[in-house]
## 1
Amino acid sequence: MRLVFLGPPGAGKGTQVKMLSKALGVPSMATGDVLRMEVASGSELGREAKSYMDKGELVPDDIVIKIVEKWLRSINIAKGFILDGYPRNVRQARELDEILRQMNVELTAAIYLDVPENEIVRRLSGRLTCRKCGAVYHIEFNPPKEDRKCDVCGSELYQREDDKEDVVRQRFRVYTESTKPVLDYYKDKGKLLVIDGLGSIEEVNKRILKRLQELSSSSK
Ligand code: AMP
């Protein structure tokens, strides 16, 4: 299966993509993760991307499209893939279709994880990340044993610049504004699957697998 995962930041895409990638045995890639790695490495691309990311704005299309194309050409495309956090606008969606067309394959479906703004703010603004090992906690749902200290490596926990409430609201606004047309784009092509993203990780995962099963049995 060749899938893209859409949904506002904090909808649980990362978690669901990892589970699905394992269940389907296909590779996945998150553009946000690759960009954060570039920022951490201090590369030229990372330096350019950082200024946009810290403000919760989208990184310019040309940078992100190049990252995605390079990755798609590095995997066995016939086996399938999952993209997380891409596309974020219609240009990115069109470019993806074009890259896939050149590779003689087609996208199977676009999965949209639907979660309302207030729930997103609750999830993200309580998130704490370890400065050293990257472990993720949540003040309410998964607190560290000691205040602001990582259970794994003992280092300081901090709130990511883009997890602060005002930036979270900004990211949500940017996301919905630029992604609404992407949803319409996939809807028009009959490829959009909307999944309710509220509930436990397992519940959401079951919902996704059920819809994908229905999809593969209807295409047989
Ligand atoms: P995420 O981890 O998906 O929330 O992404 C974190 C940040 O990386 C976003 O706020 C954007 O600045 C940037 N980013 C990730 N994916 C994309 C994309 N497809 N297009 C543009 N910017 C992106």
Note: Residues 9, 31-32, 35, 52-53, 56-59, 64, 85-86, 88, 92, 171 surround adenosine monophosphate (CB under 6 Å).
## 2
Amino acid sequence: MTRRERKKLQREEFVRENGLICLENVSKSYSTGSPALNGVSLSIKPGEFVFIVGDSGSGKSTLIRLLLRELIATSGNVWVKGHNLNKLRHREIPKFRRNLGIVFQDFRLLNDRNVYENVAFAQRVVQVPGREIRRNVPSILATVGLAGKYKAKTKQLSGGEQQRVALARALVNRPSILLADEPTGNLDPKNSWEIMKLLEEINESGTTVVVVTHNREIVNAMQKRVITMRKGVIISDEEGGIYIDED
Ligand code: ADP
Ligand code: MG
């Protein structure tokens, strides 16, 4: 067995035992203020759908940014897909991030490009051959219900449609984990539901999905695992949970 094969097996074994996402007593302090995360431990198994809820400032986005390896924990360990992110080398980060798809509240699209280009771009940066891009992009746009809009400039789209483009872009490289930080924060109730239903479908087809949200009605209706944060700690973690009041 080569060294690389052995490492891969070790990562797979770690995931089986500890989860696809695993935080072990993680704290994160910025230069000012009290810690944004304070002793957080959690494990998310492959194929789970998890909501993360809590007051503004409770540390939800900090947690997402640690998983993306945009931030490094001040103490404790963060493991994603068997990689210890504290030990990940800089040159390993781009390849590691291919395991993750991410969507944000404000879509973050390239507004001078059309829908097709926004999604194709994500494939070009990881050097997918053109032939495959021309096959993958229409297919993922159909999945998010935008097959007919591929030529539209993103600014001509509704908020809900823009978030679908962002979702297609996040998914086109087939990540094993989809992270969404308040994906419906800028959407009306109808579009919010449509995006959440899409996230559920994506989860049902095998992707692990982690959604930060303030949408109480949707959290209560969808009956998923709900992790509630307050002031940098997890105050509850319930299967089939509900949105807990903040006061
Ligand atoms: P949430 O996403 O739950 O609203 P955040 O993770 O964004 O919470 O923030 C948690 C805490 O960390 C807040 O007190 C916030 O002010 C602080 N914080 C977040 N980002 C930074 C930063 N880049 N520099 C300093 N403090 C930050
Ligand atoms: Mg946030």
Note: Residues 60-61, 181 surround magnesium ion (ligand 2) (CB under 6 Å).
## 3
Amino acid sequence: MKEVHEMKIIDRVALITGGGQGIGKAIALTFALEGAKIAVNDISINEVKALETVEELRKLGVEAELFLADVSQEDAVNNMVVKVIERFGRVDILVNNAGINRDGLLHKGNLAKWEAVMAVNLKGPFICTKAVLPSMREQGYGRIVNLSSLTARIGIFGTGYYATSKAGLIGLTKVTAVENVTKGITCNALAPGYINTDMMNKYPEDQLKVLISKIPVGRFAEPKEVADAALFLAADSSSYITGAVLDINGGLYI
Ligand code: NAD
């Protein structure tokens, strides 16, 4: 029987930041299974895991390459995008997935944490978006998917730095959408709740149990459940959806 790819991204070139593990890796594998070519970005300290991800992608029979760069460093990102275009000929899809989390109460404000989180979670997507937009605008096609968070939608205790960065990312999403809508480019955000990755696994067991007890679905999501939503927004067929924020939270915020 002929294979049917309803979410069409065959031969599209996807650059996925922080693609070495967690949600980014799940997105890379999901896109690859639909026939996309994958540029995996990650930082050098995560090179080993990122190379493993690239190997897994190649085993699926798709073209995949690792591009090490810190998304908060403009020169490194610009250089990376040049190399991705040299290797694959174009960038069709950018997933701004790389992110970090630092908890802390705002009244005890820690500027170093604030700056670290803003650099990766907000400045990073701005730099990456800016780097891919000229070629996307020229080719008249682009899909940008930004990983925001439930924390941008509701006030969650102790998440001040992270939540502010992820709310800012929704602003970036909407303006990117409106400024590029006539160029065949869409830009949307995902707002995941609690997902089973290293980012969550650092919390103690009893704290995780309390969190799970508050989720109507009764569990954390698997990274693949976020990746499927990313696929939907990255597909050719989502051409009429732009500037949207898609919640993926098991009913925690409706
Ligand atoms: P993770 O910590 O498992 O993976 C993050 C990846 O980003 C890693 O590969 C890491 O090396 C990379 N990275 C970190 N800093 C980087 C930098 N400066 N440049 C390039 N790469 C960098 O996290 P995850 O849970 O997979 O989260 C992925 C995204 O989803 C993040 O933006 C996160 O904020 C968001 N998110 C996660 C959850 C969750 O519950 N896990 C919920 C909502 C949103």
Note: The chain has one domain: 13-247.
## 4
Amino acid sequence: MRQSEKGLLLIVSGPAGVGKGTVNAELIKRHPEIRMSVSATTRKPRPGEIDGIHYFFKTQAEFEQMISENAFLEYMHVFGMNYYGTPKQFVVNELNQGHHVILEIDVQGARKVKEVFPEAIRIFIAPPSMAALKERLVKRGTETPEAIETRTKTAFAEMRAMPECDYLVINDDLNEAIAQMEAIVAAEMCSVAHNETVINTFLGGIEEC
Ligand code: 5GP
């Protein structure tokens, strides 16, 4: 893939159960220049989740301390009970090193990041259909029926945000979804907006001729 001085900030949204995590994990495996931001949260780890890999698991006091230190790019209460936030330092460092950074965050978080980083690219990962989404939400099976209902409501609210994103990836087939993500990164790397330095070098060259 084409290199540049600064990486792309990719905000990946989409309803729970759509396979965002799988698409992102596979993309990162294939492209070491793409990094995944690890969010902080006060929710309890699910079976198999590892601190520092899936999330930084924090107590409420620890999370609030980070808020007071202005350590988040964005944070919020999701589902009205847990804090979730994107630690700022990692994102800024990686972008400055020319790595692309993926934020896997909800739609409200995506809107906040876009305010601070207007050049961020919003990608929506959608299921093949609404029926497929409903099936995946129920099949996930790690939570109570109440939690599934809350998750379903949130998933539908997330789907309504599709039109405000820059790109739409349909996750029907994993390899196809990854190919679409790769195409987005390749196109954005060639965008005029992302190549200001290169363009100015060319224009400077004209002056010198
Ligand atoms: P879960 O508890 O299932 O891991 O995540 C619940 C929701 O929180 C998902 O929609 C997920 O995208 C969102 N989320 C995870 N990390 C962050 C974050 O750092 N900021 C925001 N705003 N949402 C997040």
Note: The mean pLDDT is 93.
